[in-house]
Amino acid sequence: MKKSSKPQPRKKKRTPRPAGPTPQWYKYLMFGLMIVGLLWIIAFYITQGLFPVPALGNWNILIGFGIAIIGFLMTLRWRG
Fold this sequence. Notes:
Layout: H1 24-46, H2 59-74
Helix pairs in contact: 1-2
């Protein structure tokens, strides 16, 4: 008895892209978001809630941290 075995199709291997340095604009955006988030929180505390957006109240703190965290998360993809 013969076994009827068909050859399995080979999976193509991915060739990794050469990891080059990150573009210059990425670094400026990353550090810019960190600084803007920090300044947002500082402005909220110094003005006792009058700035940046008084209608949001204490949500300004969360917005400031959110902006800064986006900047910090961008550091995971940064290749110097």
